[in-house]
Amino acid sequence: MKALVKAETAPGLSLMDVDVPEIGPNDILIRIRKTGICGTDMHIWNWDEWAQKTIPVPMVVGHEYAGEIVEIGSHVEDLRIGQRVSGEGHVVGHRSRAARAGKFHLDPETKGIGVHIPGAFAEYLKLPAFNAVPLPDDIDDELGAILDPFGNAVHTALTYPLVGEDVLVTGAGPIGIMAAMVARHAGARHVVLTDINQDRLDLAGRIADITPVNTAKEDLMEVRARLGMREGFDVGMEMSGAAPAFAQMIEQMIMGGKIAVLGIPAKPIPTDWTAIVFKALVITGIYGREMFETWYKEIAMIQSGLDLRAIITDRLPVTDYKKGFERMGEGSCGKVVLDWG
Ligand code: NAD
Ligand code: ZN
């Protein structure tokens, strides 16, 4: 089968022939139709320090996908050949305290497909049946392929109650934009989305009912005054991994405000703990998606009218994967989806 492989310890990926994976009794085999390129895949493409430390070579990469079940392990019940699925890319163990308590997203033995074990940028993906998420008819393959990053947005956004709240989202990457969309859909009052990249803010302003703010040019205090917000933001979602954005968020929160942090800083960042203490802020780190409550909620939100489609800005056949990674590198696009035929 064709697959996108990190074949050498160097930047780039190769589209090459590899063996179709053999499934075990508890697995399914998925014929991949669409895949999304994630920021993580960009790290692997660029072969940065994190990738060099983390990715065994050779490795089939990719973890955002949708496809159709073509084979089922002998112990698998409740799934059938021909069924359309997406699925969780975090493969968990069943031994840790968290896993045995049903909090699978907190399992310390988690392995990532396309990171630690062979991934979804391939004609066929082997997946534990446990990880599969059947797609309803009203969620097509390209939406199915972005349920993983949308799930990051949903998991973060639904950490705290949102109805009537003023929300600050820092970082208008694809996940930040989707998180802002969720905040709007879930009943927030004002949703302010910041970035320093005007292209990203323009995209966000076009496709979501939010207030985009370029913090390189505009002062958030003035934005607050314009919106009639006196004391600060009630809920914060950090989606940039950028130190100045996190500092700004702490500064802009109301007393007792609540922050969920998804963004991953490249290195440890200086943090104003005094402000955190005196403002009595609540801060929660967010990793992945809750299995499978996040998947339930995100599908339900799309079905109840959250229109996600416009976050997909680039659609390419997999043979044009280099163009896709180039688009991601430019940093002005939304989601890039590759078609596997
Ligand atoms: P992205 O890199 O596409 O977007 C980040 C955005 O932040 C960019 O548009 C960038 O211009 C913006 N930014 C940079 N400096 C800023 C500043 N000072 N103020 C405001 N915005 C600023 O990332 P993404 O794919 O949307 O993902 C969002 C974040 O979530 C990334 O840090 C990613 O690594 C992280 N992530 C975490 C998990 C997890 O499980 N915790 C999963 C997926 C992604
Ligand atoms: Zn990802």
Automatic annotation (TrEMBL):
Signal peptide: none annotated. GO terms for molecular function: L-threonine 3-dehydrogenase activity; zinc ion binding. Keywords: Metal-binding, Oxidoreductase, Zinc. Its EC number is 1.1.1.103. InterPro entries: ADH-like_C, ADH-like_N, ADH_Zn_CS, ER, GroES-like_sf, NAD(P)-bd_dom_sf, Zn_alcohol_dh. Residues 8-338 form the Enoyl reductase (ER) domain. The keyword Metal-binding applies. It comes from the Bacteria. It holds the Pfam family ADH_zinc_N. Its cofactor is Zn(2+). Belongs to the zinc-containing alcohol dehydrogenase family. This is L-threonine 3-dehydrogenase.
